Amino acid sequence: MHIVLPTSSGRLEPYTLQGQPLAVKPATAPFSRIAYSAAHVVADPLRSGELNEPCAIDWTRTIEYRRYLIGQGLGIAEAMDTAQRGMGLTWETARELVERTMNETRDLPGALVASGCGTDHLPAHLATSCDDVIRAYAAQLDAIQRTGSRVILMASRALARVARHRDDYARVYREVLAMCDQPVILHWLGDMFDPELKGYWGSDDLDEAADVCLGIIAQNAHKIDGIKISLLDDSKEIAFRRRLPDGVRMYTGDDFNYPALIKGDEQGFSHALLGIFDAIAPAASQALAALATGDVARYDSLLAPTVALSRHIFRTPTQYYKTGVVFLAYLNGFQPHFFMLGGHHGARPPLYLADVFRLADSANLLRDPELAVERMRLVMETLGCGN
To answer: In this structure, is residue 82 part of a structural domain?
Structure first.
């Protein structure tokens, strides 16, 4: 199959598809790693209003996609940044999303859901102290725990604004963790994903920040299942992982280096909580199944081709990676349109989208090549890049 696509030279050039679509297979045995996929939401373009109005979600397709992920043995990291939390998805809609996901996946054996608990409903002008942050966390924590979902304690923009010292972080996390019904996953999202989190844990220096974070974990280890780190620096993650207390897991959020981090070495490995798993679910699921049986060669062969795609989707400015994730879901027929909350379907240029297409093909992740080509042509023509 052939299509004409824009290239970095500023010209349109022919491209011939070469991938062999990877079949979707249900998970038949437990993985040797816990693997969460942060999941995107499907917007409803018919009910969408202006950017300052409440977001509109296509609930049917949004839940169907979660069931698709769970069917492949992946857990759901719900209402996280992949779902455009803080970039179009409000807390009010996120709460409904968590409730719907929990209610509509209970029939799936082994369904694993952990949901993002933050402070994003707290207006900036009302966040003036750590007490305000603690109350905001408490409100979301109560709502999430009522659904039966596990909890991911998200990094807080409000805390980054009001904290004056590393002790402020220690106090907020100590008090919030004391309210948790069961051990939670902490969430350290680097400022490449969210510039408003710059200096989190009280320092711009990552080594100093890691010391503060590890101190908080050590003091509250009985309340912590693990920590998800998204710094896109594998050496920092490995060094951090080796300092974790016994029983506290590392969940990699490194969308650049995940194959090696998950595989690990004689000194340990990372579990996974990744946005890219939304886009590469069949490859991720089958690779994890192979790893569980000791078939490292199969694991490597499945995930290696996905790395270039992931590095492209998450390229700077990294916070707009959701555009690539949703675009691939559109190409693969999981939704009938390429429309996103907050207008983020327009956050990346045509060349970026063309490279998503090419790299997904190379990774064998265009599940229906004819449909993908048809949809790619429509988008390129709309953007003035048709032939």
So the answer is: yes
**Residue 215 domain boundaries:** 31-349
* Residue 362 within any structural domain of the chain: no
Question: What span, in angstroms and rounded, lies between the C-alpha atoms of 224 and 217?
Answer: 7
- Residue 147: inside a domain, yes or no? yes
The beta-strand segments (E) located in 119-159 are 150-153
- Give the model confidence (pLDDT) of 75-90 as tens digits: 999 999 999 999 999 9
The full DSSP string for 315-384 is -SSGGGHHHHHHHHHHHTTSSS----GGGGGGSS-HHHHHHHHHHHHHTT--SSHHHHHHHHHHHHHHTT
The number of folded domains in the chain is: 1
β-strands 271-274, 12-16 pairing: unpaired
Average of per-residue pLDDT across 44-69: 94
Report if residue 50 sits inside a domain: yes
To the nearest whole percent, how much of the chain has pLDDT over 90?
A: 96
User: Which residues face 271 on adjacent strands?
Assistant: 251
Nearest to 273 by CA among 230, 305, 232, 306: 230
What's the pLDDT score for residue 339?
Answer: 97
- Model confidence at 139, pLDDT cuts 50, 70, 90, reads very high
Label residue 54 by pLDDT band (50, 70, 90): confident
Instruction: Please provide residue 302's backbone torsions phi and psi, each rounded to the nearest 5 degrees.
Output: -80, -40
